[in-house]
Every structure is written in C-alpha cells, then in structure tokens.
Specification:
Layout: H1 9-17, H2 25-35, E1 40-43, H3 50-64, E2 74-77, H4 81-94, E3 102-105, H5 111-119, E4 124-127, H6 129-137, E5 148-151, H7 154-159, H8 163-171, E6 178-183, H9 191-198, E7 203-206, E8 217-223, H10 227-240, E9 245-249, H11 253-265, E10 270-273, H12 279-290, E11 296-299, H13 301-304, E12 312-317, H14 324-331, E13 341-347, H15 352-362, E14 367-368, H16 382-386, H17 393-422
Parallel strand pairs: 1-6, 1-7, 2-4, 2-5, 3-4, 5-6, 8-13, 8-14, 9-11, 9-12, 10-11, 12-13
Helix pairs in contact: 2-3, 3-4, 6-8
Bound molecules: adenosine monophosphate.
Adenosine monophosphate (AMP) binds near residues 20, 47, 49, 310 and 336.
Length: about 450
C-alpha cells in the first residue's frame, strides 16, 4: 500500500485522490531506494508506473528539505515533447496539494516565454535535451544546485541521437546530485557509456527487459498480400474489434497521413501524429484523443514513443516495426498498468522474416489470425505450408511460388537492415535473433477475443 511508504502527506493526499492505492513493482522497489538518495539504474517495462516511481521520491525530498534560495532542484529529461508534457501532467496531479512548481521546456514552444518561466524558479524542470541545452548555453538556467537528475526513456534518447546533449547537461549540473536513469532496455548502444559518465555506483533495479512478455497483451498476426489488402484488413478489424481507443502504427509519415485520411473516409473518428506536424497540431490531436473526441490515432514511432493515453486497448501494426524493441514500445501503448490489450500486426511476405525474428527476440509465438472474408493468397513461407500432411501437387506449386517470394523477402529485409545502418545510429538495426526458437507448424484458426 502507498500509505505504508514514507511519503509526505501532500503526496499521500494526491495518491488517494487519484485512487492509487497499491504501488506497482517499480514503485514498491524503486521509491525506498530513491528516498535513500542512491543513484539508480532502472530497466522497467513501458507502462509499469515508472513516472511516479521517480516523481514521488523527488517531490518528497523537495517537500521535506526546504531550499527556497536554490535554483532548479530537479531536472527530468525525456526524448520527445509529448512525453515531457505527459510527465508534466503527472507532476501536476501528484503535486496538487503542495506549493511545488514545475516548468515544461521543450522544442517547438516560444523560447522567450520559456526563459521567463525559468526565471520564476520552479523547483522542477521537465525538458527535452536539445531545448534545455539551448537555455543552458544562454545562461538562462542554473543547474549548480541540482539535487536530482532523471534521464527517462534513456534508450530512446540515445536512439534519437541525444547522447552528447545529455552528457553536456549532466556535466553542467551539480556533481553531488542524485541521478536516476530509466530505460526499457539496457542493451542500447552507448547506454553503458552514459551510465559510467553520469551515474555514481548506481544500484541496479532490473525489473524487466524490453523483451519480457507483456502478459496482459494478446498478440496476433494477420497475413496480407499487399498494401491494398492491408487497408481492407485494417478497416475490417477496426469494425470487428471492440475497443475504446486504437493506435495504428505506420513506418512512414506519408503513409500515416494517407491512412488517417482513409480511415476518416470510412467514417471512423481518427487523427494523425507524426514528426513533421507543427507542435500545436500535435498537441491538438493528443488532446482530442485524451478527451475521447477521436478513438483512432495513426502514428509513426518517434511521435508516439512512450505516449500514455489511458484506455488504448488496440494497437495495429500496419507495417511491422523494424526491431523487437520498437515492437515492444508500440504494443506498450496498450495493456498499461495491468489493463488488457490486443496488438495485431499485418504481415506481408516481405515482413515475414522480420516478424519471425521479433518472435524469436521476444521468445514467443504470435497468434495467427484470419479475417473472415478477407483471406489473402499469401499463407506464409513454404516451410510452414509444406509441413501440412496433405501436401498435394497444388501445394507443391504454391510452395515453389512462395519459396521465391520468401527468398525475395529475405533480400528485402537485408536491404532494409543495410539502409538503416546507413542512417547512422539514429535507428538500431533489426532485433538480433537470440534463440533458435521453433516457429509453429501451421496457422492457428481464427480465435475471437475473449
Ligand atoms: P508510466 O509507466 O509511468 O507511464 O505509467 C503508466 C500508467 O500507469 C499511467 O497512466 C499511470 O497513471 C498509471 N499508474 C501509475 N502508478 C499506478 C499504480 N500504482 N496503480 C495503478 N496505475 C498506476
């Protein structure tokens, strides 16, 4: 029970008002360690309640130890503007019964306004690294009194190329501070370098790696012939499924725009979120989603990273994500804080190998599903089909045909991996197969959601 944790009265009051009684695992184990002032390295599942796990002990500290004359006392860094807004909202709710103030400093907002906001000296700054660094270089912000630094979604920050910025910010802040680093996975390239440079003898709290299964999320795949077939499947699934809110993931901004238009044309209430949109439009669509004015969001990965929208119970991968970690981040939008969810991936022949490598990475097998009336020609690679008992001549022919498409898909997948490598380290290469996990022999029959 939260009431058993030694947290300030103001915070207990907010928790009670929010109806939060039982701490999640990361909160139960992380809060006491953070209260001791230790540096922490936490790997926790998306949606595990990690925001409160670092905000609560930090706010407790600010409430217990008065420091009216100090400059910024706490700094939380996040990879995207949306995430920063989300944490800011979390703060507002948890700090409701206190005098504590926070400032939100992200790109895409007015610089001068932010400078005046920082001058008001809020205890906590919640920021994205690029803009924060700009303010630091203009001497707008003073981190010499900083007591707590939080690097949230650290793996994403590094993936997005913020490693240098994060190191500069850490260097510019009080060396005796407490530092908490949270990451879905600790395997991201360069993460341990940041850990060594920024944290002091951190206590590790390894709750789950990105790979661990989201047991509350049911994962299915539907085979598709091409983009047109995928579109039909998507509209049918949006009709068939019972959901409060859905997120449809696309790998490209252009396709995200196109899909949201088509979904709206089919009379669904949908919006789109991607990195090319103006900040105001991004805020507006998030607001519409949160206020239930739209129930479907079409999004690209960067834009939707870590977004916490209550009530998302359906995720559709229109395209398969390019890595296992990315997949975990996407499906983590549903099934948050123990709620159940459904994730459906539409798989074309060229995506089969990628999908299988993600299955192996996650050490699980996705449920195969057919959509009645919309079964396509593509039935998976030849290996799987041949294992059926009655492999007659027609099947043989089919095998040759799809063996070809399968080898084409290998080529395409390899190509894509090379392409990604050429983009530099902004994106990780596809998930490496870890185990030689056996794939299922055939396609499971369509199962209705329980
Ligand atoms: P986070 O992992 O911080 O993004 O949190 C995911 C969701 O879990 C948020 O909507 C939180 O409001 C919610 N949450 C956080 N702590 C708890 C808790 N102890 N019990 C139930 N829900 C929680």
């Amino acid at each position: 029970m939260f009431s058993e944790l030694p947290l300030h009265n103001c915070l207990q009051k907010s928790l009670a008002k929010l109806g939060l009684e039982e701490p999640t695992e990361v909160q139960l184990r992380g809060i006491p360690l953070a209260l001791e002032g230790k540096d922490l390295l936490i790997s926790a599942e998306t949606g595990s309640g990690k925001t409160a796990a670092y905000l609560l002990p930090m706010l407790h500290r600010f409430l217990e130890l008065d420091a009216p004359k100090s400059a910024t006392r706490g700094l939380v860094l996040l990879p995207t503007r949306e995430l920063a807004r989300q944490v800011f909202k979390h703060f507002t709710l948890l700090a409701e019964f206190s005098q504590l103030k926070a400032g939100l400093i992200t790109g895409g907002e007015d610089f001068k306004y932010q400078r005046s906001l920082i001058r008001k000296n809020p205890e906590l700054i919640i920021a994205t690294p690029g803009r924060l660094l700009e303010h630091l270089s203009h001497n707008n912000i003073d981190l010499s009194d900083l007591e707590v630094l939080v690097l949230d979604e650290a793996d994403r920050m590094l993936d997005m190329g913020f490693s240098e910025d994060v190191l500069k910010i850490a260097e510019g802040s009080r060396p005796e501070r407490q530092t908490l680093l949270l990451s879905a996975t600790l395997k991201t390239r360069g993460l341990m370098t940041v850990v060594k440079k920024v944290l002091r003898e951190p206590t590790q709290l390894l709750l789950s790696g990105a790979r661990d299964q989201h047991t509350s999320i049911r994962q299915q795949i539907v085979l598709a012939d091409d983009v047109a077939h995928k579109q039909k499947l998507l509209f049918r699934l949006l009709e068939l499924e019972t959901y409060n809110k859905a997120i449809v993931f696309s790998n490209t901004k252009v396709q995200a725009d196109r899909l949201s238009g088509l979904i709206r044309y089919h009379k669904f209430r949908a919006g789109v979120l991607h990195g090319d949109m103006e900040q105001d439009d991004r805020n507006r669509v998030m607001d519409l989603m949160r206020r239930d004015q739209i129930s479907i969001l079409v999004a690209t990965d960067v834009a939707a990273r870590g977004l916490d929208i209550a009530g998302v119970d359906l995720v559709v991968n229109f395209d398969m994500p390019r890595s296992g970690d990315e997949h975990v981040h996407r499906i983590g939008r549903t099934g948050r804080a123990g709620e159940s969810g459904l994730a459906i991936s539409l798989i074309a022949a060229s995506e089969w190998n990628l999908m299988s490598s993600i299955e192996r990475y996650l050490r699980m097998e996705f449920e195969r599903r057919d959509v009645p009336g919309l079964e396509g020609k593509y039935k998976g690679p030849a290996k799987l089909k041949a294992s059926g008992k009655a492999a007659g001549k027609r099947k043989e022919l089919g095998r040759k045909k799809s063996a070809k498409s399968d080898s084409e898909s290998v080529k395409k997948t390899k190509l894509r991996h090379r392409d990604q490598k050429q983009v530099g380290n902004r994106r990780k290469p596809s998930a490496a197969p870890v185990e030689k996990g056996a794939l299922g022999d055939g396609l499971a029959p369509f199962k209705k959601r329980s």
